[in-house]
Design a protein that fits this description.
The structure is a single chain. By secondary structure, the chain is mainly beta. Helices cover 4% and strands 52% of the residues. The protein has 1 helix and 11 strands. The radius of gyration is 13 Å and the shape is globular. The N and C termini lie far apart (40 Å).
C-alpha cells in the first residue's frame, strides 16, 4: 500500500503562483512514476504532469507547458508541482498519483496509476 498526501492548494489571483506538494509513504521508492492530474466540476480527470522515477524525465500536458514544473525530492519521497502564471481555467481539484511500469510508458493515462491522493483544491480568480 502507498499513501499520498497533497498540500499547497488555495485561492490565488490570475497570474499568480502556487506550489503543490505530495508526500508518499508506505511501499514506495524513487523508482516509481509520480503524476499530477486535475478535475474541474463536470469534467473528466485530466493529466497535468508526470515525473519518471528511474530517469527523472518529465511529461506535461500542452495546456501547462512552460507554466508548470514537476520535480521531486527522493530523500523525502515528495513530489512537487510548481504552478506559475495561473489562469482561471486551471481551477480544479489536483490529485497526486503513484504508478509503475504502465505509468512510465504512458504517464497521461489514469489507468497506469494504482494509488491516488485525496486531492487539493486550486482556485484561480480572474
Amino acid at each position: 500500500q502507498v499513501q499520498l498526501v497533497e498540500s499547497g492548494g488555495g485561492l490565488v489571483q490570475a497570474g499568480g503562483s502556487l506550489r503543490l506538494s505530495c508526500a508518499a509513504s508506505g511501499r514506495t521508492s524513487s523508482t516509481y512514476t509520480m503524476g499530477w492530474f486535475r478535475q474541474a466540476p463536470g469534467k473528466e480527470r485530466e493529466f497535468v504532469a508526470a515525473i519518471r522515477g528511474s530517469s527523472g524525465s518529465t511529461s506535461y500536458a500542452d495546456s501547462v507547458k512552460g507554466r508548470f514544473t514537476i520535480s521531486k525530492d527522493n530523500a523525502k519521497n515528495t513530489v512537487f508541482l510548481q504552478m506559475n502564471s495561473l489562469k482561471p481555467e486551471d481551477t480544479a481539484v489536483y490529485y497526486c498519483s503513484h504508478g509503475g511500469a504502465i505509468a512510465t510508458l504512458t504517464p497521461q493515462r489514469t489507468s497506469g496509476y494504482a494509488y491516488w491522493g485525496q486531492g487539493t483544491q486550486v482556485t484561480v480568480s480572474s
